[in-house]
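Schema walk-through. Below, the input block comes first and the output block second. Nothing else is stored per chain. Lengths vary across the set, and this one has 617 residues.
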Amino acid sequence: MALISKAAGSRGARFSSVPKAKLERWRVWVVLGGLLMLFIGLLGRGLYLQVLNEDFLQDQGDARYRRTLKLEANRGMITDRNGEPLAISTPVQSIWMSPRSVEILPAGQTRPVDWKPANDEEPMPLSLDEIKKIEKQLQLPPNDLLKKLSASRKNSQGKEIKSDFLWVKRHISPTEAKALMAMKIPGVYSQTEYRRYYPAGEVMAHIIGFTDIDGKGQEGFELTREKMLAGKPGSRTVIRDRRGYIVEDVSTIVPPQEGQTLQLSIDRRIQYLAYRELKNAVEAAGAVGGAIVVLDARTGEVLALANAPSYNPNSRAKIDPAHKRNRALTDLYEPGSTMKAITVAMALDAGKVTPQTVIQTGNGTMAIGPNLVKDDHAVGAATVEHIIQKSSNVGAAKMALMMDREAVWNFYKDIGFGEVPHTGFPGEAAGRLRPWKTWRPIEEATMGFGYGMSVSLMQMARSYQLFAGNGEIHPVTFTKLVAPAPGKQVVSAKTAEQVRKMLEMVTLPGGTATRAQVVGYRVGGKTGTAKKLVNGAYSDTARVASFVGLAPISDPRLIVAVMIDEPTFSLRYGGLVAAPIFSSVVAGSLRLLGVPPDAPTTNIFLPSQELEVKEET
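--- output ---
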């Protein structure tokens, strides 16, 4: 029985091992199948992420860590005609932080000395004491930085998020930035930028203009030549960690293209002189403002242009818009008696009169329809020369009425009236000159002595080129020229010479501009004292006093035009307030340019105040 039992057990064991082996193989296939499915799933996910969704993931990664750094181009320098700097860029430092990357600790809590981030997503702890140190070093208002770091906004999903970037303070000195960075406060970074500096300050403000904090031109030639001066910024693409540190460069650095240098026709020495004299005169006369233009009589280059009041382009403080007005180019006014030289030139060139032609002005009044033209002082029967010297309105009106209306209109157009000067300066005005077909006789007459039309001071200065040389008009330019641009012949050289003689008579005893005389030089010009239009009517008290002249008269090198807006009524005459500015600017400028004297040093003949001839139109 024992043997039978043993045999039976042995047989049973043999038969029971078969299903057990089968069961183990089934489990192997299940595990292998599961792994295979998992591998296929991982492979499919990998293909989806790396092929089908690669662009999205790449963009997300780049948004978090990839940065394209802008390499600022150094803005081009602006210089005067002699290479003296008028606008330069200096390197400065700007401080920035990432509010999203910092965590502001509660009051009284400080960051552990041995603190290290556990991962790239952990924000950097920043204590209130450290924030106060930053504010104190950068002279920020108390709690200003704290508020900005704590500020948040809602994203498209309505979740409160903080900004990735915050300018803490821009354009500080490298010394200040170095002191701040030495504190080693986490999350505070420094970046190099460029700030524009104007050595001449308010003297050149209306010519050069200024840039904003981002280095973009806002006024003057900083605006009009923005593309030339700005250059082209470069770039550097890097990988940054969340603390702002550069980990790797991922592309070739593209170097910036520096801005070009702009050389102007302005002479810095003459500009200083012109601005100083204008500013002093405006203040002394209690005027609203004033402007002066100095042209090279031979080339049309602008040697100086100044306005008062002015402003400091180096200051980031708010600038009064009225002080930014470039009166010489943008403001229009009725030129008054300075137009009489133009009227005489037209009549002479057309053969209507000669310098010795006698014109009857009677008792200084002339009726044209219901209107009356008046002289400030009667001159009776006078030659054309004396009509200019004494500034007779009636005489100028009679000469204007001798001319054909269309011919007069064409003449005005030829010398630039009613046309933009095209100096390249922003906002320059064209003036007002109505079509000749609409002119009435009284308007023809009043335009002969500077009423019924409007011009800018620059246009008036340009028109006197007629008398500076051989009767040509050259384009006006702020750019230094190698050679004069071709001119347009408007009157004959003989006419120009004849008018020059008359302009010199204006500055001699018996004329209205004796205060324009210059020691050692013969000069000439014409005064103007025009009533201002206020609320559509001519004011009884508001005047524009002006003077436009040439020097030296024997061989003109300079054209100087001066305009004073609303001086004190007792100083309203152009011969009293504008002519002395001309005298001072010409005296200094001719010596600076090395122009030899053309008269003895005893050539000044100033009449007494009682005998001084004054005119008002």
